[in-house]
């Protein structure tokens, strides 16, 4: 089956409102053999059991194992990732679950199917799925009839890994709040929705943040910040990496990083008394990290820019002077790494220092992006790199080990 056909099928399935309904209609419209040919041909189960997609002849169509949906990878392997010898072959979303909401902003929950890879030389059916016998699949109910099946359902939405023309049955499902095309770069954005699956769940899906793409540049920094008590996220499941950082957020991050020191004065600004983060802001003033905006205002709900973020860190470090004697690309008497930072910009020296010590490489070729608002992923990444610098003053990366701008926009 060609990539073009797989892509076309993904568009067709995108119009289906329910995969379970699609499979059931396929079964009753043809035969049980059309949906579960291997199971029907090799196991002593009834046609009705095959039609209701049951992996175990002792289970009935009302049991969870027979509902046509695969169990979760985190329960099968302990990780919310595709197991070895499987690939993400498609995805769908469920709206209105609440699991992925950030504050009052509703976000969809995404489900990614991990399909088995087929052995070389295996044939493929019209939907781009090979026979289970051509894979390492072992169709079964994961934990009896009251759990869903693994390695059974032969189905492919088709938005991912379209260069792989034929895949086997679904081993298990990944669940995430990250859009699939950001989770796995092989996925496209062709939509498929099945809100009936929105509350399929397992406790293992709530073991850590569910909105971090597995290979994202910020994952290590977020995990570090969480373990250090610098952030707890929006909830136990949601970190919100692309959400903006407000000035009070930044104050809380830095204050917690320093061990929540008690400020000497409690009323530096007239727009923060009574808020829980007031000690953090007052400490920042006394530490020389901020002077506020104007007229004794801190403006806690204003977004933080990249220029402000590196300035906070630079001041917390003691306003060090960049090492002009350092060899290029990190120094040199006439060297400045960014073309978009004005010579009179308040953050110019801070940006130079942050580049030199490896806290940032900018957002593009010789571009710092100082007026751009910083997000939560960038902020904890800056702070994590600052911490590594503090623990090892000689840890600034050399040119070869430095993260590239295209990979790490922080």
The unreliable regions are 22-51, 396-410
DSSP helical segment count: 13
**Residue-averaged pLDDT, rounded?**
82
Strand element count: 5
Shape: elongated
- Strand content of the residues, in percent? 5-15%
Judged by helices, strands and strand pairing, the structural class is alpha+beta
Helix content: 25-40%
Quick one: biggest sheet? 3 strands, antiparallel
Order of helices and strands: HHHHHHEEEEEHHHHHHH
Radius of gyration: 26 Å
Main features:
two-stranded antiparallel ribbon; alpha+beta; 5 strands; elongated; 3-stranded antiparallel beta sheet; 410 residues
Characterization of the model:
- The two termini are 42 Å apart.
- The relative contact order is 0.10.
- The strands form two sheets. Strands 1-2-5 form a three-stranded antiparallel sheet.
- It has 410 residues and is an alpha+beta fold.
- Helices cover 27% and strands 8% of the residues.
- Among the domains are: 3-16 and 68-206, no CATH class; 219-245 and 303-391, no CATH class.
- It is elongated and about 75 Å long.
- Helix 11 (306-316) packs across helix 12.
